[in-house]
Each structure stands twice: as C-alpha cells, then as structure tokens.
C-alpha cells in the first residue's frame, strides 16, 4: 500500500517511517508532510491507499484538513498524543487511531485492518460517520455508537443499549429491540465512552444503562433488576458507586 505521513514534528515522521519500514513491509511510504497544506499536495500527487494523519497541528488540524477535501478514497489511521475529545469521537465512529508514542503491535494491527479494507474495496463508512459527528456535533441523546461485528457494523443510539456484558476481550451489547451484538473489544473501552450517557459499571463483567433499572434486589445477594426482566449482579466493591449513581 502506498502511504503518506502527515505530522508537524519531523522526529515523529522519522520514527513512524522507521517503524513502518521495520514492522510493516507491505506499506510503501511515498511522501511525508509537515503541515496539512503540504499533505494535501501529496494526496493529490500520489493518490495513496493509506494516510497516517496527525490531529494536533498548528495551522490546520487533521479534521479540518479532511473537511477541506472534495473527496477521499484512502484509508486513514489517525495519530494523536492527548486529544481526549478526538479519541472519544473516533471510538464512536470505529475509526483506527494510534496514540503517541506509537506501539508496534497496535501499528501492525491498524495496518493489517487497513490492508484488508483496501483489498475488499470497502467504502469507509466509519470515516463518513466520524465526519458527520464532527460537523453536526450532536447532543448526547442523539449520539450513536458504531458496533463492528463479524457480519456488519451496526450504528446504535446509546439510548437503545440496555446493558453490556463482557467475556474476556469480547463485549455483548443487549438492545431494546431484543438483538444481542458481539463485538471484539473489551468492556472497559466502552465504560469510558458510555460514562457520560448514564451507564454504570455494577460488576467486573457488566455495564448497565440506568434508564432500564427497575429495582435493586437484595435477597440471595445483590442484583439490579432491569425492565426486561434481566437480573445483573452487583459486586461488593461497586455498591457505593451504584448508590451514588441512583441517588440512594
């Protein structure tokens, strides 16, 4: 895959280029750029398959650069050091990103995913969704989560999620329509995303939408009874957190 790297710091470009050369031989870096404007020239000149894009740049950030493009037909891996809003937005949109300093295993995984998408010629719907999130800046109630299963990427409103249950590095989402979606990501990633949307972690394996809690049952142990009849266990260490969340 032909790739272009855009970052406003030369040492970041040099480091990423060296890592790609050593650990991702399927990537051919055809150009690097120290600004969004230089990067756009490279995009039009080389028509790459893959773009590594820094978010925080002084003249024009990565998101603004993308919005300025008439169209794009390449995979994108965002690179960021600390922008928490950007990380949350990208997680909602299921777009790949790398945190600085770049981890080799995460770099290889992101490149492998981009390569697969390129080979299958799948239009990057996740990126389209991200750009819509950035343009419209929807309210929390309107926010949608991109859940990638083995068969599809399902876009679900946070208000449609009753609960999440983990199994090792997998998370199952139970929805109001009765569907259960198995996603290959650990539950702690979704706990961070859903914290501001009235979800609480009542157990190591369970994350619950408080809107669907019917009662707290205390016979034969502590359980949250949900409106769909499901009983979710409460771990001893989470009792005070739940009491605070439910104003008890």
UniProtKB/TrEMBL annotation:
Stored PROSITE patterns: HTH_LYTTR (PS50930), RESPONSE_REGULATORY (PS50110)
GO molecular function: DNA binding; phosphorelay response regulator activity
Keyword tags: Phosphoprotein
Gene3D superfamilies: 3.40.50.2300, LytTr DNA-binding domain
Keyword Phosphoprotein among record annotations: yes
Domain HTH LytTR-type: 145-248
Keyword Transcription regulation applies: no
Modified positions (4-aspartylphosphate) in chain numbering: 54
Pfam families: LytTR, Response_reg
Residue ranges of every copy of the Response regulatory domain listed in the record: 2-115
Protein name (record): Response regulator
Organism, scientific name: Spirosoma arboris
């Amino acid at each position: 895959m032909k790739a272009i790297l855009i970052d406003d710091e030369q040492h970041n470009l040099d480091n990423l280029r060296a890592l790609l050369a050593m650990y991702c031989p399927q990537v051919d870096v055809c150009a690097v750029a120290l600004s969004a404007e230089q990067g756009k020239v490279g995009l039009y000149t080389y028509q790459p398959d893959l773009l590594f894009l820094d978010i925080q740049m002084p003249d024009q950030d990565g998101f603004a650069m993308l919005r300025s493009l008439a169209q794009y037909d390449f995979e994108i891996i965002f690179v960021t050091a600390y922008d928490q809003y950007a990380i949350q937005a990208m997680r909602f949109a299921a777009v790949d990103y790398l945190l600085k300093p770049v981890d080799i295993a995460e770099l290889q995984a992101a490149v492998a995913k981009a390569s697969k998408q390129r080979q299958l010629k799948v239009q990057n719907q996740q990126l389209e969704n991200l750009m819509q999130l950035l343009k419209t800046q929807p309210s929390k109630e309107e926010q949608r989560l991109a859940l990638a299963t083995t068969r599809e990427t399902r876009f679900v409103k946070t208000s449609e999620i009753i609960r999440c249950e983990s199994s090792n590095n997998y998370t199952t989402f139970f929805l109001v329509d009765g569907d259960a979606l198995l996603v290959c990501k650990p539950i702690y990633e979704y706990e961070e995303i859903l914290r501001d949307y009235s979800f609480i972690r009542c157990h190591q394996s369970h994350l619950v939408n408080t809107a669907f809690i019917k009662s707290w049952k205390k016979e034969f142990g502590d359980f949250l009874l949900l409106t769909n009849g499901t009983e979710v266990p409460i771990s001893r260490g989470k009792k005070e957190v739940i009491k605070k969340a439910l104003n008890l």
